[in-house]
Design brief:
With 106 residues, this protein is α+β, with helices and mostly antiparallel strands. 34% of the residues lie in helices and 43% in strands. It contains two helices and five strands, in the order βββββαα. It has helices at 69-77, 79-105, and strands at 6-13, 16-28, 32-38, 44-52, 55-63. Strands 1-2-3-4-5 form a five-stranded antiparallel β-sheet. β4 and β5 (55-63) form a beta hairpin. The radius of gyration is 15 Å and the shape is elongated. The two termini are 21 Å apart. 5% of the residues are buried.
Length: 106
């Protein structure tokens, strides 16, 4: 994965599958990166990984454009599901980043 990499991510919002296109816009693997999603709210996710006390701290921020109407309501209702999915993605990302760091150190 690097700048320009793309994929489609599917979120379930109020029981309906919603596709979002993702594009990596910044990548300093494995320490940092930014992904721009295109879909409801056009979220931009920035990830930073720093070493801390013999481990790693992964910090992720998400900037979302406020959406009105029915989709905005659906996003607010689905917030806990979206947060759960994001936390699961963070867990997988942390594992992958730590494996990459271990390979660099070997």
């Amino acid at each position: 994965i690097g700048v320009g990499s793309t994929w489609v991510q599917v979120l379930k919002i109020l029981g309906k599958n919603t596709e979002m296109r993702a594009v990596v816009t910044e990548c300093q693997a494995p320490e940092a990166g930014t992904v721009q999603f295109y879909g409801p709210g056009d979220p931009r996710v920035t990830t930073d990984i720093t070493e801390e006390g013999g481990g790693s701290r992964l910090t992720q921020t998400m900037d979302i454009v406020e959406v009105g109407g029915l989709m905005g309501f659906a996003l607010r209702v689905a917030r806990s599901t979206i947060e759960h999915d994001l936390n699961e993605a963070l867990r997988r990302q942390k594992v992958a980043a730590e494996e990459t760091l271990d390979e660099k150190e070997a």
